[in-house]
Amino acid sequence: MSRANKVVLAYSGGVDTTVCIPYLKKEFGVKEVITLAADLGQGDELEPIRKKALDCGASESLVSDVTTAFIEDYAFPAIQANALYENRYPLSTALARPLIAKLLVEAAETYGADAVAHGCTGKGNDQVRFDVAIAALNPNIKVLAPAREWGMGREETIAYGEQFGLSFPVKKSSPYSIDRNLLGRSIEAGPLENPWNEPLEEVFAITTAIADTPDQPEYIEIGFEQGKPVSLNGHALSPVELITQLNQLAGRHGVGRIDMIENRLVGIKSREIYEAPALLVLIAAHRDLESLTLTGDVTHYKRGIEQTYSELIYNGLWFSPLKAALDAFIQQTQAQVSGTVRVKLFKGNATLAGRKSTNALYSEALATYSADDQFDHRAAEGFIYVWGLPTRVWAEKTRSANR
Length: 403
Prior knowledge:
Blueprint (H helix, E strand, L loop, with lengths): L5 E5 L4 H12 L5 E8 L6 H10 L4 E6 L1 H14 L15 H16 L3 E3 L8 H12 L4 E3 L1 H4 L4 H9 L14 E5 L2 E5 L29 E8 L2 E5 L2 E2 L2 H14 L4 E7 L5 E7 L1 H17 L2 H19 L6 H13 L5 E8 L2 E8 L7 H4 L11 H23 L2
Parallel strand pairs: 1-2, 1-4, 2-3, 4-5
Antiparallel strand pairs: 6-7, 7-12, 8-9, 8-13, 9-10, 11-12, 13-14
Helix pairs in contact: 1-7, 3-9, 4-5, 8-9, 10-11
Pathway: Amino-acid biosynthesis; L-arginine biosynthesis; L-arginine from L-ornithine and carbamoyl phosphate: step 2/3
Catalytic activity: L-citrulline + L-aspartate + ATP = 2-(N(omega)-L-arginino)succinate + AMP + diphosphate + H(+)
Protein name: Argininosuccinate synthase
């Protein structure tokens, strides 16, 4: 008895997802495989990928251009949350997974499939992100993960595919595992598996080596409305165009590289290299604008929320009740986060150089030490007395008890 009759497979055109097509049919007894490739602004030509899936035995080969939705519905909320996993990784790859899961579930419903599938292994985070997101959207649909079960290395996987007439022109591929979308690139494996090895320049594609960056700094201005980036250097841009242009500007100055040892959800540590120029600059600029427009208590409380929010995304819980509750909190905080942030790009650094907002809570008249100072210094003594009263009472009690 087959596990499923009709399956929608998340398809990238790579070796693993390509071999999944015959493997699902032969080993899982699937009668019909429909592939789905998501255009997330990765820059690949997807028509050859669509045709490749058909040549490899797919009955339908779907391509969905969801780049705008990816930025508006996934990246922008993460920017509003200042989401940085372990305070470093801006979740450029992780953010794509719930969207792909949503597409799989929708396609399965449209085409009457009784299962969806992906090519994730049993050691990574993506399997969790896909499986849990799919379960949240449709708890009754089956999820098949051939690569989690077949136990084949890359050469064995290629050999298996060749048994079914599949062709893999490049036998000796790059040692790196690379994932890319409009938000950036993630690179792992190969020499990077030794955390002592410095990443070679060949692993980078959208950020310039520091030695080759301009010798003069470049200033840019990013406009925000209610926490969402809307303009670059005074020009209103669509979300996709803004990310695209900012990637180019920041990447040209070597901004956006991350080299980190990351704690995976499955319990192991992995060495990860990321390039995410625009996303890192936007999070830094957004956080800076919040410092100007949010009250201190909200700013401080939100920092803890941001850590939890980042972990929820990383751990595959985008469609969870807690994530929805935190979304409501974050959106409430963003009502006044509008203004402009000036950033200096130079030799791998994005330095915050200025910020302004009509909603600014900063008052120069209160902050200045000049003759224009309007702060009532005489009120400080009473404030300090009341503020320190609990400490004073505690000190008196403990001193008398120790005599």
